[in-house]
TrEMBL record:
Secretion signal span: none
This protein's name: Lytic transglycosylase domain-containing protein
Transglycosylase SLT domain ranges (all copies): 21-216
Pfam family, one: SLT_2
Listed InterPro entries: Lysozyme-like_dom_sf, MltB-like, SLT_2
Top-level lineage group: Bacteria
Length: 249
């Protein structure tokens, strides 16, 4: 839908405050008429500058903590305890996912627990507004312009709508997929459904090189797949540790 549109989309001027957002949005919509559907561009036209998104983007201080501090702050012990219980009560689901994708329950439960507290906190920020705000914001405009294009495609497919709400950076569902990840790795279901979210997460890890039966601690073959999930080293190591503690139960 958007092939070859990157250089043209960059013509819309990024900014670092709310002041230029409406003008940027008009320019982006004008540049993408004929590349995106009218319905998806109408949905984009209704977005607003998300101050909650900018606040979250500028406030990711936990990734600068030590591993022990990070795990304590994120409640690692609670995630392990709850993860072990969920592994038992959802054994059939995790067995079917492992058979299909080769990913054991531990890393999936670690990601699920870390991302949303097992679905308790999925966010309440308008998804299109969040992604549009970050596409406009100069800090990572190119990256989130790609996410915005993916989001507009998902609107056309009925997977996102103008009213979809999720986390502050535009992530949705139990394991917090950005729009481009929904497009590339979603297995077809609503990511607010546990089974669809976990199978999509396993599909993501498999696509990032997960090898059935191999280890996933630092230095082991599957750790690279966890690195694909999140760029923060402290997050990667925490997922590996929490996942191992769940799988060893």
């Amino acid at each position: 839908m958007f092939g070859g549109a990157l250089t043209q989309a960059q013509a819309a001027q990024c900014g670092n405050s709310a002041g230029g957002f409406e003008n940027w949005k008009r320019e982006f919509i004008a540049e993408n008429r004929g590349k995106a559907s009218a319905a998806s561009l109408d949905a984009l036209a209704g977005t607003t500058y998300s101050t909650a998104t900018i606040s979250a983007d500028r406030g990711q201080h936990s990734f600068k903590l030590s591993l022990d501090q990070f795990m304590a702050k994120r409640g690692a012990a609670t995630i392990v305890k709850r993860g072990r219980a969920l592994k038992r009560t959802n054994a059939a689901l995790f067995d079917s996912i492992e058979q299909r994708y080769g990913v054991p329950p531990g890393p999936l439960l670690a990601i699920w627990g870390m991302e949303t507290g097992f679905g308790a906190v999925k966010g309440n920020v308008n998804t299109l507004s969040a992604v549009a705000t970050l596409a406009y914001d100069c800090r990572r405009s190119e990256y989130f312009t790609d996410q915005l294009r993916a989001a507009l495609t998902l609107v056309d497919r009925g997977i996102l709508s103008a009213s979809t709400r999720g986390a502050a950076h535009g992530e949705v569902g139990h394991t917090q997929f950005l729009p481009k990840n929904v497009l590339n790795y979603g297995t077809g279901g609503d990511l607010n459904n546990v089974g669809a979210a976990l199978s999509s997460t396993a599909n993501f890890l498999k696509a990032h090189g997960w090898q059935r039966g191999a280890g996933y601690q630092p230095g082991e073959p599957n750790f690279a797949a966890l690195q694909g999930w999140n760029a923060a080293q402290v997050y990667q190591k925490a997922i590996a540790i929490i996942g191992r503690q769940i799988d060893q139960d």
